[in-house]
Amino acid sequence: MVLRMRKLKIILEMIKFEHTVFALPFAIMSAFIASNGLPQLAKLGWILVAMVGARSCAMAFNRLADADIDSKNPRTSTRAIPAGLITKGAVWIFTVVSAGLLVCAAWRLNPLAFALSPVALVVIMGYSFTKRFTALSHLWLGLALSISPVGAWIAITGRFDWTPIVLCCVVLLWTAGFDIIYACQDVNFDRKHGLHSIPARIGIRWALWISSALHVVAVVLLFVIPLLAELGLFYYIGVGIVVLIFIYEHAIVKPNDLSRVNLAFFTLNGMISLVLMALSIADILL
Length: 286
Prior knowledge:
This protein is mainly alpha-helical. 77% of the residues lie in helices and 0% in strands. The protein has one domain (2-285): UbiA prenyltransferase (Tetracycline Repressor, domain 2), CATH 1.10.357.140. The protein is built from 14 helices and no strands. α2 runs antiparallel to α3 (41-65) and α6 (111-130) packs antiparallel against α7 (137-157). The mean pLDDT is 92.
């Protein structure tokens, strides 16, 4: 039992379980907007299970798919699989169980969510292969995270609608933008090993401009959402804070200074999703 718990701890550290904070707040925000108030607690609970399962499955599978690449990259060679801290077999079991959580939660929610769960798995697991053949892999990662608000909306209403689609586009552009920033760290490695990314293709300076442009469009779309849903002052305050965080994020990462990429990637983007979720919920409930 102790050994199993130790393995689980290693896996959770390996997949950065705490970074579920990126997509999960957008799913919860979408659920509250769809409900126009507090969602049914049972549905909210299953949405949380689905999100944890999806994100854990995607990251564990990514670590499996990239194990050989990670072993060659000095920045990632200490990850659990290349470092020999955990076996691929154990990670495969965790991946399958996590995928099962997503499918089970979708089944408990409604028929449409259940029918679309295999599609979700293909999208979130397919990302792991994209950098082998396209520099647009950042957009695929954005798509993988962006299906979370659509999934939550379907979980609540059992149908598609324009509001979650716009929110989906926001998450896609936001994620692609910050992933481009993160990929700037591996430009030389990616070029040497034939991996694809926007920074490796066009250079760090232009990649950062593209990242900024994606985030500008994401902000514009944030102002579209109140036209479709009943959101007001608190939501706009949240958007204002998001804009300030974006400005700071792009100010601290420069082509000749990537020392604060982790702050821009992890800390600030976690703040963006949490702030927007919290103030959107406050707007709906208050």
